[in-house]
Design brief:
Number of strands: 0
Order of helices and strands: HHHHH
Oligomer: single chain
Shape: elongated
Strand content: under 5%
Radius of gyration: 32 Å
Length: 81
């Protein structure tokens, strides 16, 4: 349809239709690129999970005894009048 408009030199008569057709022709036909990007994200996340070493995981551990002792020490400093 757009080629017909250009072939007959009607783009000046129908400028909005020409613009709409050009925009329509640039739209993707499918959304497979979006699906592929989610698939790649899943692959990357699986890779990161499997390559995370034990030492790296230990760095994220929280020693609850240290947290309790620190909290208790801060609360013990309060003075009551």
């Amino acid at each position: 349809m757009l080629t017909l408009i250009y072939k007959n030199k009607l783009e000046e008569i129908y400028p909005y239709i020409t613009t709409a057709l050009r925009m329509f022709l640039t739209l993707p036909v499918t959304v497979s690129s979006g699906k592929r990007s989610f698939s790649k994200l899943k692959i990357i996340k699986n890779y990161m999970r499997s390559t995370m070493g034990q030492e790296h995981k230990r760095a994220f551990l929280v020693n609850f005894d240290d947290v309790i002792n620190t909290f208790a020490a801060k609360k013990a400093r309060k003075t009551y009048f």
